[in-house]
Amino acid sequence: MLSKNKIKYINSLKITKFRHENKQFVAEGSKLVKDLIQEHFDITELYATAKWSEENSELTENLQIYLVTDAELKRISNLTEPNGVLALANIPSMPPGHEMLPDDLLIVLDGISDPGNMGTIIRTADWFGIKDIICSEDTVDVFNPKVVQATMGSIARVKVHYDDLESFMKSVPPDIEICGTFMDGENLYETVFSPKTILVFGSEAKGISKELLPLITKKLTVPASGNRTHRPESLNVAVSHAIITAEYMRRQNQ
């Protein structure tokens, strides 16, 4: 049976302050938890239904597992319909972003605040084999439960680093091109990419920060098609990231 203190502690990890203080985060759902186990994340406790525990006994034999009822799981879950298991894991230590200069493509996120967009960007990066993302310090916490959930397990394979982006971008060698996304940029499908490229995506509301603008060496845009009079003001940042990253990777594979 879950104690009141344990329930309080697990629920406190929904808040950034307590995640940072305790250096732990919550992951839940069968696929996500199994991905973390398989990628050797430091999982300290598992809370699982008897059915889930029995079905995954080989995977969890060396882990501390507590059996809970569906009702108990719901008391600690962030999901409307909990999916059998919840894990507490230690937040891994990450080097600062300036140590992650690219061999080919590096993704940089400036002020991304929406957890769903953040999680989708990480998932897309994982699809294309991108191992590292650098974020501004005001970007949403990657271990926010909604971000973790939206990654669909990709958080187990993509490392997210936080840093002062202005300092980082000033340190980038001249052979690395820094491309930013803008409404009035160069047509994505006509641009020539450098073999070493940083793609910078700005916040949903404000775009790329003004202090970073002088450090962008190429402006890119995803061109709208057709002659419609009315269209959205901009693309969703996760969609823009997916389109531009896919086009970059397509060029590299030609």
Could you explain how this protein is built, in words?
The protein has 254 residues and is α/β, with parallel strands linked by helices. The chain has helices at residues 4-12, 16-22, 30-38, 50-55, 70-76, 115-127, 145-150, 165-170, 237-252, and strands spanning 24-28, 43-48, 65-67, 85-90, 105-109, 132-136, 159-163, 177-187, 197-201, 218-221. The chain has a six-stranded parallel sheet. Strand 2 (43-48), helix 4 and strand 3 (65-67) form a beta-alpha-beta unit. Helix 6 (115-127) packs parallel to helix 9. The longest helix has 16 residues, at 237-252. It is elongated. The chain starts with a helix and ends with a helix.
Structure, briefly:
By secondary structure, the protein is α/β, with parallel strands linked by helices.
CATH topology label of the largest domain? Alpha/beta knot
Helix content: 25-40%
CATH superfamily of the largest domain: SPOUT methyltransferase, trefoil knot domain
The CATH class label of the largest domain is Alpha Beta
Largest sheet, strands/sense/barrel: 6 strands, parallel
Shape: elongated
Let me know the number of strands.
10
